[in-house]
Amino acid sequence: MPDTKKQLLLIEDEGYVIARVNEILQGFPQFEVTRSDNGEEARQLLDDRPFDIVITDIYVRGVSGLELLYRARQKNKDAGVIIITALASADLAAKALKEGAFDFVVKPPDLDRLANILKLITLVKI
Asked: Is residue 87 part of a domain?
């Protein structure tokens, strides 16, 4: 029987955010998680294969989360993209929503909110 795990890419370069998101992801065994803390590596991963869900910071070491959103949706038009942002970049997060992001979360990510967003994506997207 083929593996039915959904592909999730976490793109984040701040350790405390990675730890909080990993805490959430432990409750979602249906996801096969790939992690990247580097913008160039994230670009390559997104160009190489489709992901069902992408959780990305609005900026990851010189790469815009908007670019990563665009790349994710090029490979999988139904990809659910969640943007993680500092409050100061809420305008960019709003732009990301306009460009097709599923939702955004302000740092530090609220565990319950992120879990609820992932559940919703699972219901409506994948």
From this structure: yes
pTM score: 0.92
Residue 92 confidence (pLDDT) above 80 = no
pLDDT on residue 118: 96
Taking alpha carbons only, the member of 78, 81, 82 closest to residue 126 is 78
Given a cut of 90, whether residue 69 has pLDDT beyond it is: yes
- Chain centroid to CA 31: how far? 12
Instruction: Give the total residue count for the chain.
Output: 126
Number of structural domains (the chain) is 1
The CA-atom distances, in angstroms, between 23 and each of 3, 29, 80, 97, 123 are 23, 12, 19, 25, 21
What span, in angstroms and rounded, lies between the C-alpha atoms of 53 and 79? 5
CATH of the domain at 36: 3.40.50.2300
**Residue 65 to residues 1, 12, 26, 123: CA-CA distances in angstroms?**
35, 10, 24, 24
**And the tokens for 117?**
């967003």
Q: Which two tokens stand for residue 84?
A: 């993680």
